[in-house]
């Protein structure tokens, strides 16, 4: 039966009302922190310490809350809740706790944050939540770390997720993980032929690599990072050759086409916005050398807008998909 609109809800009516998913999640949390008032003797001749968050008898919580029935008392007293005498009666008559009047009064004052001589439902729930949060924090601080012995030994070359696997022109394999670790494997016995770390530059420690491509005909390695940039390496010396920065979005999937006779590289970049970009650089070696002379840096760093100032560089971008692109096929 639906509760009347001219009076507050009782505990049972409040519990049986339709609840949303968010309220169910909150209730699951509240069920953990609502524990009945109980006294546990530390020693026979000493006073018992009272707590409302002792989890030893959690199965009796619903019965105790129903007997305390703070919301019903609020209705009867015009929204005031339990008085100190009624609170003592709960412990002495309902919970069977006697000879602890001083501790009951102390507990009542802790819960009665408004200091009006009554405990309402909000004060009672707030106290239990704060008390449980404190107990949980103390438990976490006192938790001990346990190690599984013996430790699991891993001989994997990569420590992070592998983001790219490619077959090279000589038949060998290349793998790249998102931490920038790149390995070239011999096809015969899958032993490591050479390795290098992508994404590490002089002005920072490292960055996440989103994709990588090797153009064997031009001896170039193109690495694409989460910092919206392209790192160009020499595949023979494995040294960083150039950086093109400040792309509009992070390139997630890429593919490189080479036109060796013209020294041209065409890079197709796809991002998480569903956009496809095409970067074309003619006479790649001469263009990078030109950038190097302009910046007077050993490793030239140019933004995309600066690169477009060269007659050999062209860039196109358009929206092609409604979601991120997962792969580029040649």
TrEMBL record:
<feature type="region of interest" description="Disordered">
    <location>
        <begin position="1"/>
        <end position="29"/>
    </location>
</feature>
<dbReference type="InterPro" id="IPR051242">
    <property type="entry name" value="WD-EF-hand_domain"/>
</dbReference>
<dbReference type="GO" id="GO:0005509">
    <property type="term" value="F:calcium ion binding"/>
</dbReference>
<dbReference type="InterPro" id="IPR015943">
    <property type="entry name" value="WD40/YVTN_repeat-like_dom_sf"/>
</dbReference>
<dbReference type="InterPro" id="IPR002048">
    <property type="entry name" value="EF_hand_dom"/>
</dbReference>
<dbReference type="Pfam" id="PF13499">
    <property type="entry name" value="EF-hand_7"/>
</dbReference>
<feature type="compositionally biased region" description="Basic and acidic residues">
    <location>
        <begin position="13"/>
        <end position="29"/>
    </location>
</feature>
<protein>
    <recommendedName>
        <fullName>EF-hand domain-containing protein</fullName>
    </recommendedName>
</protein>
<feature type="domain" description="EF-hand">
    <location>
        <begin position="99"/>
        <end position="134"/>
    </location>
</feature>
<dbReference type="InterPro" id="IPR018247">
    <property type="entry name" value="EF_Hand_1_Ca_BS"/>
</dbReference>
<dbReference type="InterPro" id="IPR036322">
    <property type="entry name" value="WD40_repeat_dom_sf"/>
</dbReference>
<keyword id="KW-0677">Repeat</keyword>
<keyword id="KW-0106">Calcium</keyword>
<dbReference type="InterPro" id="IPR011992">
    <property type="entry name" value="EF-hand-dom_pair"/>
</dbReference>
């Amino acid at each position: 039966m639906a509760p009347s609109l001219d009076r507050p809800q009782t505990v049972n009516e409040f519990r049986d009302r339709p609840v949303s998913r968010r309220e169910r999640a909150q209730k699951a949390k509240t069920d953990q922190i609502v524990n009945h008032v109980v006294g546990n003797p530390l020693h026979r001749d000493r006073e018992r310490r009272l707590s409302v968050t002792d989890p030893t008898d959690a199965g009796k919580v619903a019965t105790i809350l129903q007997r305390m029935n703070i919301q019903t008392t609020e209705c009867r007293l015009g929204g005031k809740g339990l008085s100190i005498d009624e609170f003592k009666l709960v412990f002495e008559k309902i919970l069977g706790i006697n000879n602890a009047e001083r501790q009951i009064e102390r507990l009542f004052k802790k819960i009665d944050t408004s200091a009006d001589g009554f405990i309402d439902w909000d004060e009672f729930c707030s106290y239990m939540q704060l008390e449980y949060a404190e107990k949980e924090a103390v438990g976490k601080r006192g938790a001990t770390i346990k190690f599984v012995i013996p430790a699991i030994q891993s001989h994997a070359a990569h420590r992070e997720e592998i983001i790219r696997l490619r077959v090279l022109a000589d038949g060998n394999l290349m793998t790249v993980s998102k931490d920038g670790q790149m390995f070239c494997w011999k096809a015969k016995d899958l032993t490591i032929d050479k390795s290098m770390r992508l994404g590490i530059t002089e002005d920072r420690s490292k960055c996440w690599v989103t994709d990588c491509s090797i153009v064997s005909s031009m001896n170039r390695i193109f690495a694409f990072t989460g910092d919206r940039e392209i790192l160009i390496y020499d595949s023979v010396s494995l040294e960083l050759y150039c950086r093109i920065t400040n792309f509009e979005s992070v390139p997630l999937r890429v593919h490189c086409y080479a036109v060796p006779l013209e020294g041209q590289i065409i890079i197709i970049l796809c991002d998480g916005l569903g956009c496809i970009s095409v970067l074309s650089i003619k006479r790649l070696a001469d263009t990078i050398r030109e950038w190097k002379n302009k910046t007077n840096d050993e490793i030239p760093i140019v933004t995309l807008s600066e690169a477009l100032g060269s007659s050999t560089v062209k860039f196109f971008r358009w929206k092609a998909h409604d979601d991120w692109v997962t792969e580029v096929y040649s």
